[in-house]
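To: structure subgroup
Subject: Chain for Friday's discussion

All,

I'm putting the inputs and outputs inline so they're searchable in the archive.
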Amino acid sequence: MGFPQTFNLFTAGTFTKNVGFFTELEANFEEDDGNQVGFERTFVSFNNLGSYFGQKDLAHLRVGKFDPSAFFSYTTHRQQLDPVRADVASNPGGFGLATINRIPLVPSAFGAKFFGIFDRGGKQILPFEPTLFNAPNQMGVDIHGRPFGDWFLYQAGIVNGAKEGFGDSNNAKDWYLMGRFDYAKSDLFSASLSGFGYFGSNNVKVALPMGGPTPDVSWNRYGVSGRLRYKMVDIYGMFTIDRISDLPAGAFEQNFDATATGLTIQADILATDRLLLSTRFDNLDAGGVKINPMTKKTVRTSNTLLAFQAKYYLRTNLALYVRDDVNLRDAKGGTSAPRNFRNAFLVGADLIY
């Protein structure tokens, strides 16, 4: 147990009746790249654009840095099992595979899923970190609304992609579409079903063997998600398929699995007015580089985890929790970070003020 390393300050409000704003300032003292303090989600919203045509909920617009999955049945943020950061030793020099000492504990459906892909600056994208539609901070424009009533919500957006935030080095945009069907006509029961497609354009790079050129490739994601709430039980899950296209032909293409999938299912049960019980199943069927041509060792490694957590609320903004994440896969001789650990046992506190 250590002193908290990450602090977030949220500010939200309205400029006028239909114009609002949201900002998230984060201080992360675990970062060693000089960006320990900065703005995360920061956007302006223009609401009820259809009011001029007599349609109050026809269209709402967001501009800035936001979470594309905010309206999805299984959102990237607002998890009861908090993300646990990875322990990674970077490989200097660019386009080198970093050494992963400990994988992060995050939903597999959100993750990048591929071993051996890089952002346009040469930094490796870990297979486990939230990306694309599930990236927490995409820079772009997003529109959503309910043109047919409360039972259906649409969303469409254009973002920079490539993990660039305010930058745009590839002069191309990623775009996505999402639809959500809702049922919420009972005080004790509600349900939703969502589907999305995220379409990348030259948004990542792959490193070729022996330090060859690093061409742009396109990375897409497709996913479905469902959520069901009954009384004090909340069950939700998400399945995603990632696909990389435009790979260089030849031996590299044969040594690269261009398809990967992630499955996450979680349940939260409010056992008493103060005790929340949670469990989550994660399965990552990884893609990417199969064999390191230099060392002849396996690079791509899938993993399966099962998490349990009990959280006790002392106050509405203060809770103590105990958590155990169990690795369900064989350790394979201790040669791979996704398989090495047997249990991750955590004790901590959640404080919101």
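Points worth raising on Friday:
The helical segments are 251-254, 337-340.
The longest helix spans residues 251-254.

D.
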